[in-house]
# Entry
Amino acid sequence: MSSKTKIVVLRMKEIIYTAIFAGLGLLLIALLFIMFRPGKEAAETAAQASPVYVPGVYSVPLTLGGQEVNVEVCVDADRITSVSCTPLSEAVETMYPLLEPAAADLSAQLAGAQSLENLTWPEGSQYTSRALAAAAKQALQKAAVLQD
# Structure
């Protein structure tokens, strides 16, 4: 009877710790796989590389009282360059003195943020700025590249 039987004693505490660490290791590997998968970056760079606008100058009429002013938005393929009001006759400049400063402020904000979201309105020309932003939004819809 020379069979060498070995008795292995495992403590329940060691088994639980091993199972917890193995589970955490699998969770870490799964998180790393999800975070660093290559398909995510390729989709983001492809979306950024595609043009957003058709380059050009887009105009939308804005009626102020009895006068009509064109709000012109200049865009490149991927960004908004400027917003302006043309033609500003003396009658329009006299009746709406806040129009030109509001257009300059809107142009600066759009050139910086590249979005119509979260714009701030000057205290004295909120309504003028909102009217210009609505016209600029229509012009940007004209300029947008149609996505298939």
